[in-house]
From TrEMBL:
<dbReference type="InterPro" id="IPR011991">
    <property type="entry name" value="ArsR-like_HTH"/>
</dbReference>
<dbReference type="Pfam" id="PF12840">
    <property type="entry name" value="HTH_20"/>
</dbReference>
<dbReference type="InterPro" id="IPR036390">
    <property type="entry name" value="WH_DNA-bd_sf"/>
</dbReference>
<dbReference type="InterPro" id="IPR036388">
    <property type="entry name" value="WH-like_DNA-bd_sf"/>
</dbReference>
<keyword id="KW-0238">DNA-binding</keyword>
<protein>
    <submittedName>
        <fullName>DNA-binding transcriptional ArsR family regulator</fullName>
    </submittedName>
</protein>
<dbReference type="GO" id="GO:0003700">
    <property type="term" value="F:DNA-binding transcription factor activity"/>
</dbReference>
<dbReference type="InterPro" id="IPR001845">
    <property type="entry name" value="HTH_ArsR_DNA-bd_dom"/>
</dbReference>
<dbReference type="GO" id="GO:0003677">
    <property type="term" value="F:DNA binding"/>
</dbReference>
<feature type="domain" description="HTH arsR-type">
    <location>
        <begin position="1"/>
        <end position="95"/>
    </location>
</feature>
Length: 111
């Protein structure tokens, strides 16, 4: 494993959990939410949500800022760019494979 794969591994590990994906979706819809607001619709304890936010922050997918006793979270989507680039290679693979399959089907279809 090279030094560039560790951040990518963290991003994919963070995105593997549906609760963390839901938290990111909420931040994408309305950035700068408090931890309490983010946790409200999730059926788990606040400490459990905080652990999910720790993972997201560790993967650099969110930032947290404390003002008094209130913690605000913001989306930091730039680490997902590397994940998107990695996935794009496989998108090209599937597109080329499906193009070849379509060509075979068309060649066999006399109509």
């Amino acid at each position: 494993m090279d030094k560039h794969s560790a951040p990518l591994d963290q991003v994919f590990a963070a995105l593997a959990d549906p609760t963390r994906r839901a938290l990111l979706e909420r931040l994408a819809a309305e950035d700068g939410q408090t931890v309490s607001a983010l946790a409200a619709p999730i059926a788990m304890s606040l400490p459990a949500v905080m652990k999910h936010l720790d993972v997201l922050e560790g993967a650099h997918l969110i930032t947290r800022r404390k003002t008094g006793r209130t913690v605000h979270c913001r989306l930091a989507a730039s680490p997902m760019e590397d994940a998107m680039a990695w996935l794009a290679r496989y998108q090209r693979f599937w597109a080329e494979s499906l193009d070849r399959l379509a060509a075979i089907v068309e060649a066999r279809d006399p109509t």
